[in-house]
Amino acid sequence: MAFVEDRFSVQRELGVGVTAVPLGEFHLSTRIPTSAGGRTVTRTRLHAMLTEALTDDAHPFPVALVCAPAGSGKTRAVADWARETLAAGDAPTIAWLTIEERHNDLDVVHRAILRSLTDTGNPRLQKACAGLDSESPDLGAQLSAALHELGENIWMIIDDGHLLRDTDVLTDLESFMRWQPPMLRTVIVGRFEPPLALQRLRLDGKLFTLTAKNLAFTSDEAAEMLDEHDVALSPADLDALMDRTEGWAAGIRLAGMSLEGHPDPSRLIAEFTGDRRAVADYLIEEVLAGQTDEMREFLLRTSVPVSFTVELAEKLTGCADAHGNIDWLEHHNFLISRIADSPTHYRYHPLLRSYLRAEISRIGHVEVENLELTAAHWHDEFGDALLALEHAVNSGDHDEIVALLARTSLALIVGGHGEAVDRLLTRAPRSSQDHPSARLIRAAAALASGNIPVATSTLELLDRRRSGLLVDGAAESRLHLLLRESLRVQTAIGTGDIETALNRLRGVGVGTSGDPDVDAFVLLQEGRALLFLGRTDESEVVLGKSLAHARLGDAPLGVMYCLGTLGTVAMSRGDVVRASALADEALTIGRTHSATSDPAFQSTKLIDSWCRYVRMDPDAARAAAESAEALRRANTGTAGFAEGAATLFGLDESGHRHSSVTTLHAESPVSSSLPVPPGVRAVLLPAIQYAYLAAGEIGWAHELATETHALLGPTGDTAVVEAIVHLHLHRLDLARKTLQPVLDGELDCAAGTNLIAAWLVDASIALARKHDSRAHSALTEALRLAEPQSVVRPFHDCGPLIRELLVRSTGRFGVLEAFAERLRASFPRSESAASDMLTPRELELLVELPSWRTAEQIAADLCVSVNTVKTHLRGIYRKLGVTSRRDAIAAAQHNGLL
Known about the structure:
This protein is mainly α. It is built from 49 helices and eight strands.
């Protein structure tokens, strides 16, 4: 296997300075490299890190190591930093030494060190070096003494330090660094650590290190580099390029050259791989040059999987010392890294792997297929069904693909990989795509993407070919049947006829497969069906079993799905505390396992935003809007509900309320066209009804009441929605008659929050009839129901009458007074001219009223007569429109005077 090499061609293309030196000759440069053509990206953060490390007052590092693979921009970054340092005031003397060949000699290195110090132009340093003998065996000690006596800040930069090999040179440099004078700083730049005893310096806290991770370009730095080529990418394209290059400087530079003037940057970035000529040339010359044939073969074979362990590398290569090869590659920074979450797994840089994958055909098509099958068997053995299937598809082996599908389709569907598998199968042989297991996965993928018609037709086709599911006997056929009927239930939730689908699923035998992951998935679908049928008690029991199976099977995403659905059950009941707790746990799992893009995660986030909404958390609208956007991108059936909910939750922040209510009506989250559980529909109804009435849309309010009755039937929730309309139209008798069965407990509300709304409507009816005692009693009952859940929103929905009643009744709610005070504080202060009407003396007396001291006591404190106090008090009552001290205090608080 041969790699074509063209010396210096890629360096010239990248604009890297090259010193033309015969191959066999040893050469050392003592000049700071300059950026070709004056082009450079200022790496401010790297400059700051180096400067701080070498000059920190508390703990300066005497030695710094800048170590990263070829093409990471090490030399350029350090050279720019050196020039920047020299341009600043009170700069140190900087000596630069570049080693450009591997033939090491102690005398040559000694002479080069002295020359680099002399070439700095510092006359005192030149004089100190002039008396030193480069051939002296103890030059290190002499130089240390001379620099110590000089007493000036001197920084020595040794570039390409990885080329140092000679034992005498390394021993001499090691000793010098360990005992170098305090004013000297040594910076070693190289592709990998030279064989110096650097670990001792690390343990002594004397070595600062910049790694490939530090040198990787940030998005902003990459954009600056691309700007040098007049390339400006969209955020999405820049993110895609960063994924391709992982911040590797050479990759970004080569991409910039290719993108310059290109008409379709997105397409080029998608096709920007290691087999592009410019990238391939650089990899051949700078990364792969000098490797043995055996190592090149090892690299090709281990590039088959995305990541590999030592054991998998042995199987792919047949190399007994795979561990030694990987250690060598890792030590030499060969564009290889460990996976953070799995430190025993290794991966190549994406551009290097794509180059190797392009070159692998040289070992023969049959051998490549065997390698793919080896990787497939490996991942299958260790339970990674998706990767196993990917390698099986890459091999093109129909029998292996079908066998894997038969064994793993359950795990793939339960794990939510339907869409990924569907994409993979488009590359599989046609015969594999027609296999029943493949069609089952295709139905799951269609459901995940919200394509109900495709899911329905696929399931109908499977019904006609049911016998094809008998793969390994009746037991496995039953597992497939369970999954098929579970997918049918999911489909029915979007199309209707849930009861029939649920009965078919139960006919197979729910929760008895013996596989906890499968049972968790099947029970989850049964629980969801019951939830959409409005049978929340049954749903909660079934979902509890599903959650237990998911936890037993150690399936974190399954646990997230169960918790999110249980949160929906709690929301349907108006149980804010439980809904919030369940949603919080589910969201934590989703974030921990990087599942934030999962539609189920975003749906759970909607539950959390509703909990915030009813508690008047200002973040509710933002959270709902984020979920709506994510679900819209995923094209899921819940996107319409999310958009309507986000509109409802954002009405308070809307500057154009009527236009927002119009949007709410157009995208109503309780629309009959959306698949919404009855309880969730019920819990949002009063707020929507109040929004319609506040906007003056009586027709929409009547329409909502009619539609609610049709969807929910004669429930307490329906009665509340109808009573709100009657109250608005001042049909007080009809409103009370409609509401009475709810207040008497004869008609249950699906959502507990709607019972709060019912008592608030009753309080409003009593206020309209001037029945203050009845109003206070109804308000107290609403407070009693709302306080444990911290529910605030229904009190705001009812309008100013309830707010004024809360204020007038200050101090009359007993143990509920603290919650009542929180409610009062949640209302915005109303603007009033009362403060302008009151005289300074009246305002002074007003402040004294909440103390409940007598007129005589207040008069004594204010040094006025009792009659004067009483005169001012009458003025306060008249101007505030009240007749008692209690009402005056309440009115003053309402108007922001207290």
